[in-house]
Specification:
With 149 residues, the chain is of the alpha+beta class. It contains 4 helices and 8 strands. Helix 3 packs antiparallel against helix 4.
Length: 149
Amino acid sequence: MDAHEQITKYIASQPEPKRSDLRELHRLTLQVSPKCKLWFSDGKDSKNHTVSNPTIGYGLHTMKYANGKTREFFQIGVSGNKTGISVYILGLKDKKYLAKTYGKKLGKASVTGYCIRFKALKDVDIDILEAAIRDGLAAPSPRGSSKGL
């Protein structure tokens, strides 16, 4: 099954209204970057243990670890969780950038160094969320980094 099929299946498996919110976020992200690389992580490790929530990924950047190893990974991640939805903006050098730039404008959302969490899409300003996604997908970005999390 390719990433597109996995994403479609994952979104369809979610309860409403999260399903509609994830579908809209997927549409919005593809509208921002129609030709971006799509990823899907089922949240399981090599031993089939659950280590995270399933995540839809968009874009491509190279993470560089302290030991010198590199890994290709997505730039934007979208994941449903028990309390709502998380949007991950990865590869930002300044861990305060998201909160400083978008935090107060987003609405009912929690913003950390690389994650925007909210209960439902109706709780956030979709234009501000789109701007954060655009910013995260912009390459090269002066705030971007090749360093891993």
